[in-house]
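User: Show me an example of a complex going from sequences to structure tokens.

Assistant: Sure. Here are the input components:
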Amino acid sequence: MSFILRRLVFYVVAAWVALTANFFIPRAMPGNAVEAIMSKFPGTLQPSAYKALEAMLGVNHPGSLVHQYWAYLVHIAHFDFGTDLTQYPASVSTILGETIPWTLTLVGTATIIAFFIGTGLGILAGWRYGGWLDRALPALTFLQAMPYFFLALILVDLLGVKLHWFPTGTGYAGGLIPGWHWDFIGSAIYHSLLPAFTIVITSVAGWMLQMRNVMVTTISEDYVVAAQAKGLHDRRVIFTYAARNALLPQLQGFGLALGFVVSGAIIMEIVFAYPGIGLLLLSAVSSDDFPMMQAIFLVITFAVLLANLIVDVIIVFADPRARTKEAT
Amino acid sequence: MTAALPVTTQPAVIIADKVPGRWRRMPTKAKVGAILLGLFILAAIIGPMLEPYNPAYQSPNPNLSMNAPSLAHLLGTTQSGQDVLSQLLTGIRLTLELAVIVGVIATALSVIVGVTSAFLGGVWDEALSLLSNVFLVIPALPLLVILLGYLPQKGQTPTIIVLSVLGWPWGARVIRAQTLAIRNRDFIAAARETGEQTWRILVYEIVPNEVSLIAASFVNTVLYAIGTSVALAFIGLADLNSWSLGTMLYWAESQDALQLGAWWWFVPPGLAVALMGTGLVLLNTGIDEFGNPRLRDASRASRIAGRRLPPTDPTPVLADLNADRGRVRAFVHSFSRGSLIEQAGFDEKGGQS
């Protein structure tokens, strides 16, 4: 329990650092951000937006820095990320609310699938090291080293444009109204297959390599040799003795690697024109839509922190040492 | 009858075996990685001199737009008639240059933070490891996006600075764990007793013992810098008038190279990134096997005299002893070595932190 509590405190600190960085970055950067933003949107931004921007970016703001900081925290606590600049006057949180479910479903599911497949393959490769699966690892490394979006480009070209196996672009077939009916859900699943496949094959090698290495280290432990000497079935030795222990470092790695995987997957969405956060980020960057960029940063960070917390809870269930000892 | 003899009576002969050269002792993966990387470094150094055209030159001739590879343009041309091969060579140089500079700066930072934090201990350690753990868990890419987004100028230098600032925590964490393990060894105590100054202990006793770890962290950082800078350029957060691999991909994507079937435009830069990355990962696997005896001996043991041994086979195959002495030595070694390391409390990667 104390383990979870300590981790919780840590994540609160991490979240606070992210929030604070998000608050100070616009204020610390050179130049007048408000002028820069206003000049990017001639005509579309009303003079009233100028005030709102000033308030958000802290330019010429009446209150002290502490006061502004407090107001900022209160806004965030109410999920108020300000007004969007490109789709003025829609609020950032409304737009985010429409896109997050897409990304969460796609990236979340694909990452979990990739983790399970990669770990499974890693167990096999580690158990039979020097076997064909182990020797295939360098080839998989090649897939992993490829930027996600690049592999996505190739797959869209081959499977989408040339072979017409999968649809390209957007999250569902045109003409359908999003909602909870089968036409829409089926279409959404069909449209997400290729992006999900891309995430899985690019990230699987990383999990596999990590698991394989821990596995190789674990199977030279005496207790594994002892289990074999007792004449236990291979399957039992692999899963109950070796893999179960090798899984703990793998789980810890999962939390840390999540940020990278999610970032990569989000960039990849752009290639598929998938209606998720990635596409939103691209349009925010290309139109200097700072409120949106900042909100996306906060949302992704909080999602990753939450996922880490969940992983920690799983670790507590899986590892008795985390329950008894003061693990850090 | 005679088969059992070598184990007991001939170790001296086995040790006297010729030790192969350093290059031959390297795992195959590391060799492939080193060669791949060498090719790219070569391309980065002499490539721009061999460029057939100016990468930025836009041909006014409409016939030169989107040409498939030909003798005149070995990798074809872009929408505006620019030579893809020339762009690629410049791109490899720019991307590799950025990645290496980031690698050097960030690795230096992680060594400084990791070693000081482990060596000073106490409040310093708490604060520094909290800081690095926080930056590890916050996803770097979105943070980089706002940092670079707010910068008035985009380009090589700002990207290098921002990537270096966010690139050190992973290395710092690993190096800190290693320093903690080394700190209580006898030779450090001996150095302290002889009255060595702290900085001398750090620089001459501790850091040299972490070379393989520092090398691995450098390779990892370069990998991170390549991947991240290409991704950032791909979404347009770079100087779009320079030709890095990422900006090439940005233009290819934004000018619909894909839909127009111009594979020669977007495949070469992506492939270059992937191959560079593969080279780095393979090299890192090699360094890993070098630094972690279990992984190293495992990869050797599996190939004794052409026979693959199940890893937990409790009986080493004595009959094969004569077939290949050098490798058997490594195998027998791995049994004793593993438990020794365990006792020393030496933990190879990450460990507790």
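The lines above are the inputs; the final block is the predicted structure for all two components together. Chain A has 14 helices and no strands.
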